[in-house]
Amino acid sequence: MTLPMSWNEWAQHDGVGLAARVRKGELTAKELARQAAAGVAKVNPALSGVVELFEDVIADPAKDGANLAGPFAGLPFLMKDLGPTMKGRLQEMGSPLMRGNRAAADTFLTGKFRQAGLNLIGRTTTPEFGVCSSADNPAVYVTRNPWNTDYTTCGSSAGSAAMVAAGVVPIAHATDGGGSIRIPAGVNGNIGLKVSRGVFSLAPHMSDLTGLVSIQGCQSRSVRDTAAFVDHARGPAPGEFMPFWTTAQPYSEMIKRDPSKLRIALSHTWGDYTATPEIAAELEKTGRFLEGLGHHVEYALPELDFRAAFAAQTTCYISNFAVVISNMLAARGLEKPPEDLIEPMNIRIWEAGRHTSFAERAKMQGVFNTTSRGFGAFFEQWDVILTPITALPTPKVGTKEYLTISDNPDVLDWFGNLWRFFAFTPLANLCGMPAMPMAEQDHGLPLGIQAIAKQANDGLLLQLAAQIERALDGKWNGGKKPKVHVG
Fold first, then answer.
1. Deepest in the core among 1, 7, 295, 436, taking most CB within 10 A?
2. How do residues 401-443 score in pLDDT, each as one tens digit?
3. Could you confirm whether 207 is annotated as catalytic?
4. Structure confidence at residue 433 (pLDDT)
C-alpha cells in the first residue's frame, strides 16, 4: 500500500500541522486515516495498545459524523476504551465481563470531538474499569512502553499513550481519575493536561460533581495540539450542576506568549510519600531550568493534612468503583462479580465499597473541601507547584503489586502501594495540570515532571509548557524517539 508520506515525515507533524495540510489540499482525511491505520499495523504487535480499528471510518472519514470542515479536518483520533461512548461501537473497558458491550449512543463529549473534526478510528487499551496502574493482564492484553517494552506504560490511558509516543497518531483520547493522563504522559514522553473541573462535560452519565475526580483529556506530542483540543472540545451540556469556565481568548492564542515571571514552588515529598533521590534530583534540575527562563523557584509546600487527604481519596475510589461494578452486575442480572470475569482486586474493591455509608462519603467530601481550600490558599502566594509525576521508577511489565490481578488480600494496603508510587498525582485532581517530560530515568524511559496551578488556571500551565517547548526548540525528550516507533 502506498502511503502519502514517509514515516519520518508523518512523525514530524503534530495534529494541527496535519489538519493545515488537509485544508491546503495537500492531503485528504482518508489518506491520514490510512496512514494511521498502517502505523497501528506497524507497531501494535510489539506494544498491544489498540484493541480495534474501525475500518468503515478509515475508508470514509465522514461516515460517523466527523466534521471534515472542522478545525482538525478529519485528523485520525484513537479513543480510550473507557469513558465517552461511540454509537454502535464496542466499549469493553478492559474487562471480560464487558465483552460485546455496544454503546447505544454517542455521549456529549464524543459529539464535541466529531464536531471538531476528529475522526474516531479505533479504541485503545485500558486496565479493567480503569482501576489500576497499567493495562497489564495477560488474559486480556499487556500494553508495553515503546521506549523499552520490558516496562509498562503506566496509568489507565495505556494504549493511547503508547500510540502517541510511538508516532501512530499525534493525539489520542485519555482520562484521568488520579493521574492517568499525566502519569502515562510522563513515562512515555508525551504531553498530558489534566484540566480543571468545569471544562469537559461528562454528560449524560455524570457531572463534575457526581464524578468527583474523573477528568477527560488527551495525550499529545505538542502543546499547541493540546491547546487546540481543549479549545474545541470544552463546554457544558444542557443541565450541568455547576458553571463551566470560560477564557478571555482561546488557549491556542494564549500559548503564543510567554507567561510573566512566575513564582514556582518545588516539592518532592507529600506527607508520608517521597520521591527517590534520583527523581528528586531531576526535579531540582528542572527547577534550575525554569530559573534560567526567568522564573522565581524555591521549595515550598501547601499546608495540608496529607494523610487525611490520601485516606479520603482512597474512600472515593473504593466507593466509586464499587458503584461502577454494581451497575455492571445489575445490568447483567448478577448479584456478585463472577470470579472468572472480573479481576481479583476489583472484586475486593466491590466488597469493601458496596456498603459505604452516606456518613463516610460526607466525611470524605469534607476532607476534599479542606484539601481544595488548602491548595487554594497556597496558590494565593504561588503561581505553580512543580513535582515529579511518580515517586518511584516505572515498573516492569508483570509487577503485580500495582495491578488488579494482584493477590493482595488487603484493599487498603493495595491502595497504599499505589500512593507510594503515584504519590503526586491523585490529590492534584483538584487542579488542572500538564505533564512536562524533561528528564530521563536510569533505564532510558522518560521521567515526567508536572506543574500544578489553581482552579481554572489551565491556560497559565499551557503557556508555561509552550515556553519550555520553545526553549527546547520543540525537542521534548531531548529529541529522542522510542525504540518502537513508526519512524
1. 436
2. 999 999 999 999 999 999 999 999 998 775 444 444 455 566 6
3. no
4. 40
Active site residue 157: no
Residue 178 sits at φ, ψ, to 5 deg, of: -170, 10
**Residue 216 grid cell:** 477527560
Catalytic residue among 180, 207, 222, 319: 180
Q: Which contacts (CB < 8 Å, 24+ apart) does range 251-254 have?
A: 251/227, 251/458, 251/459, 251/462, 252/224, 252/227, 252/228, 254/227, 254/459, 254/462, 254/463
The residues that bridge with 357 in the sheet, in sequence order, are none
Verify whether residue 406 is a known catalytic residue.
no
Which among 419, 455, 428, 402 is positioned nearest to 182, based on CA atoms?
428
Burial 133-148 (b: 16+ CB within 10 A, else e): bbbbbeebbbbbbbbb
| Catalytically annotated residue among 134, 156, 201, 252 | 156
CB count, 10 Å around CB of 288?
Answer: 9
Q: Which three cell numbers stand for residue 374?
A: 488548602
Half-sphere exposure of 251 (CA within 13 A, CB side): 28
Asked if 84 contacts 216 with a C-beta cutoff of 8 angstroms, the reply is yes
Q: What is the pLDDT of residues 439-465, one digit of tens each?
A: 556 667 898 999 999 989 999 999 999
Q: Which of 80, 112, 194, 454 is catalytic?
A: 80
Dihedral sign computed on CA atoms, order 394, 398, 399, 403: positive
CA dihedral in degrees (34, 36, 37, 39; nearest 10)?
A: 120
Peptide bond into 204 cis (omega under 30): yes
